[in-house]
């Protein structure tokens, strides 16, 4: 039996990049749990799980457009070093900023200069096609909630 939208599913997974390097895995942890079709996970992952029955395994490659989207060069910006108010930012830091409208935005420090810091507001996996080894472990029927 395949899951349907609204069902909570539990999935073991291993995610790799096109060079074969692993970026995430449920190995050694509980399976990931999410509501199928609930928008809680990237669409390509959600779609692949929808085709499985409990106990089934599959390996799928999800294009960037169905994962974390394409990279946008205009999402890389320089800000004054003074914006860090005395902290010494380091390349690789993940930081959270608040936009003037109150939205929270995540960025990665990609370069630190003498006077400014380069921030990348793209998701770290944007532009990447992702390969997942998936195993559907359990389906919990949808509830009335």
Explain what the structure shows.
The structure is a single chain. The strands form two sheets. Strands 1, 2, 3, 4 and 9 form a five-stranded antiparallel sheet that branches. The protein has 145 residues and is mainly β. It has one helix and nine strands; from the N terminus they run βββαββββββ. The two termini are 22 Å apart. It has two domains: 8-69 and 125-140, Chitinase A, domain 3 (Roll), CATH 3.10.50.40; 73-120, Beta Barrel (Thrombin, subunit H), CATH 2.40.10.330.
Largest sheet, strands/sense/barrel:
5 strands, antiparallel
Compute the average pLDDT.
93
What characteristic shape results from the CA principal axes? elongated
How many strands? 9
**Order of H and E elements:** EEEHEEEEEE
Task: Return Rg in Å.
Answer: 19 Å
Work out the helix count: 1
What's the CATH first level of the largest domain? Alpha Beta
CATH topology group of the largest domain: Chitinase A, domain 3
- Approximate helicity band: under 10%
Beta-strand percent range: 35-45%
Terminal-residue CA separation: 22 Å
Summarize the structure.
The chain has 145 residues and is mainly beta. The chain has 1 helix and 9 strands.
Could you outline the blueprint of secondary structure elements for this entry?
Layout: E1 8-16, E2 22-25, E3 32-35, H1 43-50, E4 57-62, E5 76-80, E6 94-98, E7 104-112, E8 116-120, E9 130-140
Antiparallel strand pairs: 1-2, 1-3, 1-9, 4-9, 5-8, 6-7, 7-8
Could you name the key traits of this structure?
single chain, mainly beta, Chitinase A, domain 3, 2 domains, 5-stranded antiparallel beta sheet, 9 strands, 6% helix
